[in-house]
Specification:
mainly beta, Rubrerythrin, domain 2, 1 helix, 4 strands
């Protein structure tokens, strides 16, 4: 029997870009620990704004 993974794949999306009215969507796919509670927030590079911005978890892609 396979070991259950302790990580899930989640989508992070930029929080600043929609407020500025710039087209496109800056998204990142990252793994998050299953033990971590709450939504994940990381500062990642946004190529549309050409700077690092806050990216917040918007959904789960794969939960195993």
């Amino acid at each position: 029997m396979a070991k259950k993974s302790g990580r899930i794949l989640v989508i992070l999306e930029c929080t600043e870009q929609p407020r500025k009215g710039i087209g496109g969507v800056s998204r990142y796919y990252v793994y998050k620990s299953r033990n971590r509670s709450g939504k994940l927030e990381l500062r990642k590079y946004n190529p549309y704004l050409r700077k690092h911005t806050l990216h917040r978890e918007v959904g789960v892609v794969k939960s195993s």
